[in-house]
Amino acid sequence: MTFNFVGKRRIWFTISGALLALAVGALLFNVFVRGHVMNFGIDFTGGTMVTLRFPAMVSVADVRETLEKHGLGKSIIQRSGKQDIYIRTEEIESGLRAKIVDELKEKYGDVELLEADTIGPVIGKELRTQALWALFVASLGIILYVSFRFEFKYAVAALLALYHDAIITTGIIALLWRDIEIQFIAAILTIMGYSINDSIVIFDRIRENIKKLGGKKMKLSEIINISIAETMARSINTVLTTVIIVIAVLFFGGETLKDFALTLLIGFVVGAYSSIFVASPIIAVWESRK
């Protein structure tokens, strides 16, 4: 006996509604309590990027200790090779930058300033605009592709599921107050690509079963239940293998990859849920209302 996925849709929609409410609540909380909707990083707010070459290998913790003396302890510090250190911090004046380099020279010897760039808030604003355009173009492409390959109702269901994934993932990241860099946009687009792929696999099976089982006078909801059950093992195996890799990156990757991996982890789990319990039931609801 096939599990009644569509018949339990009120439960799935209630869970999704609660998660969406949590996401929106987290964004509003940040606005009224923290002053910003999300913890935007240097890529969006502007800042200073510095590359230093040390005479010998130094630890990231030692460099951070020097920056903390000047209130820059939250800077992103990344090793680039054995002797080079890459620093991303809030915008600082050239005088303070030179003072930090001098302190590092006193501590470690001949420290060479290889590169120093400043990103202004105007560039950060342009990045936010480009990010929104990227999401818009991706959404439009998905609507056109799914409508052409299936039907418009499938495109609507897929897009609603994708926005469901993106909003919940964004809300959880906002609630955790993680840094938002340009990698976050890349992660959201990756999640959308993963989720739409999973949904299309189920949609394809629904279309096949409509042709195969439609002559037996079966309801669409029954066909959807059978289709989900037939693709369930594939969906679970795919998300598990993907999540294992992302968890490995989260725990063993570099510091700059942690927020990216965390976003992917949340999004992949939510995307696997929405493909099964949100996108397909929406098609059944659309058909029943029609």
From TrEMBL:
<feature type="transmembrane region" description="Helical">
    <location>
        <begin position="236"/>
        <end position="254"/>
    </location>
</feature>
<keyword id="KW-0813">Transport</keyword>
<keyword id="KW-0812">Transmembrane</keyword>
<feature type="domain" description="Protein export membrane protein SecD/SecF C-terminal">
    <location>
        <begin position="102"/>
        <end position="287"/>
    </location>
</feature>
<dbReference type="GO" id="GO:0006605">
    <property type="term" value="P:protein targeting"/>
</dbReference>
<dbReference type="InterPro" id="IPR022813">
    <property type="entry name" value="SecD/SecF_arch_bac"/>
</dbReference>
<dbReference type="Pfam" id="PF02355">
    <property type="entry name" value="SecD_SecF_C"/>
</dbReference>
<dbReference type="GO" id="GO:0005886">
    <property type="term" value="C:plasma membrane"/>
</dbReference>
<feature type="transmembrane region" description="Helical">
    <location>
        <begin position="12"/>
        <end position="33"/>
    </location>
</feature>
<feature type="transmembrane region" description="Helical">
    <location>
        <begin position="131"/>
        <end position="148"/>
    </location>
</feature>
<dbReference type="Pfam" id="PF07549">
    <property type="entry name" value="Sec_GG"/>
</dbReference>
<comment type="subunit">
    <text>Forms a complex with SecD. Part of the essential Sec protein translocation apparatus which comprises SecA, SecYEG and auxiliary proteins SecDF. Other proteins may also be involved.</text>
</comment>
<keyword id="KW-1003">Cell membrane</keyword>
<dbReference type="GO" id="GO:0065002">
    <property type="term" value="P:intracellular protein transmembrane transport"/>
</dbReference>
<feature type="transmembrane region" description="Helical">
    <location>
        <begin position="260"/>
        <end position="286"/>
    </location>
</feature>
<comment type="function">
    <text>Part of the Sec protein translocase complex. Interacts with the SecYEG preprotein conducting channel. SecDF uses the proton motive force (PMF) to complete protein translocation after the ATP-dependent function of SecA.</text>
</comment>
<dbReference type="InterPro" id="IPR022645">
    <property type="entry name" value="SecD/SecF_bac"/>
</dbReference>
<comment type="similarity">
    <text>Belongs to the SecD/SecF family. SecF subfamily.</text>
</comment>
<dbReference type="InterPro" id="IPR048634">
    <property type="entry name" value="SecD_SecF_C"/>
</dbReference>
<comment type="similarity">
    <text>In the N-terminal section; belongs to the SecD/SecF family. SecD subfamily.</text>
</comment>
<keyword id="KW-0653">Protein transport</keyword>
<dbReference type="InterPro" id="IPR022646">
    <property type="entry name" value="SecD/SecF_CS"/>
</dbReference>
<protein>
    <recommendedName>
        <fullName>Protein-export membrane protein SecF</fullName>
    </recommendedName>
</protein>
<keyword id="KW-0472">Membrane</keyword>
<dbReference type="InterPro" id="IPR055344">
    <property type="entry name" value="SecD_SecF_C_bact"/>
</dbReference>
<keyword id="KW-1133">Transmembrane helix</keyword>
<keyword id="KW-0811">Translocation</keyword>
<feature type="transmembrane region" description="Helical">
    <location>
        <begin position="155"/>
        <end position="176"/>
    </location>
</feature>
<dbReference type="GO" id="GO:0043952">
    <property type="term" value="P:protein transport by the Sec complex"/>
</dbReference>
<dbReference type="InterPro" id="IPR005665">
    <property type="entry name" value="SecF_bac"/>
</dbReference>
<feature type="transmembrane region" description="Helical">
    <location>
        <begin position="182"/>
        <end position="203"/>
    </location>
</feature>
<dbReference type="GO" id="GO:0015450">
    <property type="term" value="F:protein-transporting ATPase activity"/>
</dbReference>
